[in-house]
Amino acid sequence: MPIEEWREKHDWLTIVAIAAVAFVTADLSHEGLGHGIAAYLVGARRIVLSYTYLSSDIQSRMISVAGPAVNLLEGFAALFCLRRWRMGSTATLFTFLLVMFNLLDAAAYLVYSGVLNSGDLAVVIAGIQQSQIIRLGMDLGGLVLYGAFVFLGARELPFFQAPHAPMTNISYVTPIAINTAAALLNPLGLKYFLISALPATLGANAGLLAMPRLAVRNAARGGTLAIRRSYAWICVGLVTTALFVFVVGPGIAFKP
After folding, report:
1. Which residues pair with 160 in a beta bridge?
2. Integer CA distances (angstroms), 68 to 9, 13, 56, 104, 121, in order
3. Binning pLDDT at 50, 70 and 90, where does residue 98 land?
4. What is the pLDDT of residues 100-123, one digit of tens each?
5. pTM value > 0.70
6. What distance in Å separates the CA atoms of residue 2 and residue 173, rounded to the nearest whole number?
7. Which of 61-70, 121-130, 168-177 has the highest mean pLDDT?
8. 3-class SS at 130?
9. Which residues have CB under 8 Å from 222's CB, separation 6+?
10. Could you tell me which of 183, 196, 172, 191 has the C-alpha nearest to residue 120?
11. With 60 as the cut, is the pLDDT of residue 219 above it?
């Protein structure tokens, strides 16, 4: 289908805005609600929240596991809402992307920590006997979960009018652009972004790119949802992105 015909069905700028809000929500849930609250509960006296990390003066298994755990909880809560209530097209897309950004990130963390012995879940298993076997289990379990979440997304995607690839491509690129902008203002600089944050963002959300092909099997549903121009979503997306890049990007220090 020509891109002009696709644009008649969907507004790409509104999709960018919705993807930005969904990504920032999932990211800050991981770092702030997950790591941040856990750090406060275990008694941290200095906490720094930034665009892809949270640092504190205390390191513990509870803090590390809290981020992926919140992603799972938020992802499944959003999935429940997606399945339970009939919503408008833009709200449906936001909820769908909130499910995907949360669940794909949580599954990817299992694989990332298992393969590289780094990241949140590597801290959780550090010092445990037979950690090599545990890491192998994390790799296999993470791959199975990731595949399951991709197929889950492919089942929901056909509710939108086809073709779906432009929609998922935009949703994939948007977090990369936002993180790149935030990295330019971060004290750790682009080096941290290039060796850690960028590969994580590229890998965790890659499942979005595979969903349109898998969704073809469910295309008989004849999706009716189209993303029309929404200035409200565009404004919310601009404000959310600006706050994330210019406020969270450089880092926010807390002293409980």
Report:
1. 225
2. 35, 30, 17, 10, 8
3. very high
4. 999 999 998 888 776 766 667 666
5. yes
6. 20
7. 168-177
8. coil
9. none
10. 196
11. no
Radius of gyration of the chain (CA): 18
In this predicted model, what pLDDT tens digit does every residue of 224-247 receive, in sequence order?
A: 888 999 999 999 999 999 999 999
Question: Cβ contacts of residue 58 below 8 Å, gap of 6+?
Answer: 39, 42, 43, 44, 45
252 has which bridge partners?
49
How far apart, in Å, are the Cα atoms of 32 and each of 25, 51, 81, 201? 10, 10, 22, 18
5 to each of 92, 125, 164, 234, how far by Cα in Å?
22, 51, 13, 22
The two structure tokens encoding residue 163: 């073709």
Report the Cα–Cα distance between both ends of the chain, in Å, rounded: 55
Token readout for 197 is 């944050």
The mean pLDDT of 126-151, rounded to a whole number, is: 84
Mean pLDDT of the chain: 86
Distance from C-alpha of 146 to C-alpha of 61, rounded to nearest angstrom:
23
What tokens does 51 get? 């665009």
